[in-house]
Design goal:
This protein is α+β, with helices and mostly antiparallel strands. Helix content is 45%, strand content 11%. β7 and β8 form a beta hairpin. α10 runs antiparallel to α11. The termini are far apart.
Length: 448
Amino acid sequence: MIKRVICVLIAAFMFIGLVACGSNSSENTDESSVQPSAQPTEKPELKPAEMKGEISFWHFNKDEGPKIVEAFNKVYPNIKVNLTIVPDKDQNYINKITAAIRSGSGVPDVFSGESAFVRKLVEMEGAYADISDRVKPLQDDIVKYTLEVGTDVNGKIKALSHQITAGGLAYKKPVAKKYLGTDDPEKIAEMLSTPEKCIETAKTLKEKSGGKVSLFPVWEEPYKMFLGSRATGWVKDNKLVIDPKMSDFIDYAKQLNETGGEAGLQQWNPPWAAAIGDDETAMCWAVPTWGVPWIVGSNDKKAADGGRWGLVKAPLEYFWGGTWYGIYAKSEKQDLAWEFIKWFTTDKDHLREWSKSTGDIPSSLSLLEEGSKSSDVDKIMGINLYKFYVPFVNNINGGIFTQYDSAIEQVYTDTMRSYLAGKLNSKEDFLKQFKETVKTNLKDIEVN
């Protein structure tokens, strides 16, 4: 009897189980009862004014830094940018940011890098974050050499620039007219079309002015042209490389100095700046894109009226300067930091306005094409600057930048000053001292 009851109960439980399973199977095949996926959905993209937060930003340029933040906050009013200006006099900026990175303390979310030392930051471990994936959707519109400079040896993009810095040769029209008999850009361009012709023109200018006016204010003007037109950077395969252009320049600077082709000033010193505004010292200055407003415009108050300056192709195609921006690798605010950099270096509406207000020429390929077709004329030079500078961009070799540039170029210019002052007797003495100093200062590269 007990066994029969147990069997009945077991049979009942089995029947209930089958009914339950059948019920679940029926529910799973009913499409109207399927629940939505539990996978997270993407958040809707926020508009600039809706983004909120706070980032820190270091810059070495007291004029540019505040303008960047001001422009950014007009579009992103709720992202607070704490700006710190660290002037780069005597390498103060690069030394301070390097010390902060190595200590891991006090590093800003975003920090700038000037052309002379940006590669040091790009290659430095723990400095800039890898932004390759963020840049990928944008890079087809970015000038190639600016990307090359901001990319490390492993192919990771670490920094972006908002500008191109192709170079030209600016000349004073009144000086050219008075002593060379013409201020016509085509004729002046021919007189300055090669380094050798520059020497001949320098001799003529010196003679016609009674020994008063030099072609260049200082040898550092053509130095920028030789430096920016090299085929190879200062260091390759961890070895010091002296590109033929830099070897040639030792002879060229000596010849220029001996013929009175340079006035013996020093770049960026007050006498050099003052000479830009007078017609009694020199005729030509090396002027990259940013140099029209910053070198000529800011130092020659009469330049803004037009008619005083002309701009011609330099005897050697070159570039000079530029600023890049990257995100600190350990920043906890990388999304906001990226928004800041992306907007400043790639937003077309912003770049268009920035170009009009500052004179910078943007690193956007589409804007370069747009600007070249524009009827806008620069007041100082009297020409369309896009149309003048853009043809040189494709020939700029971003691969010549190295992390050692600032240190090596300081040694080179110091050695050149000694050479021209008569403290070194020959080119061989120059090269010997240059190599020995580089070897002493930079222990991690091989010097032969």
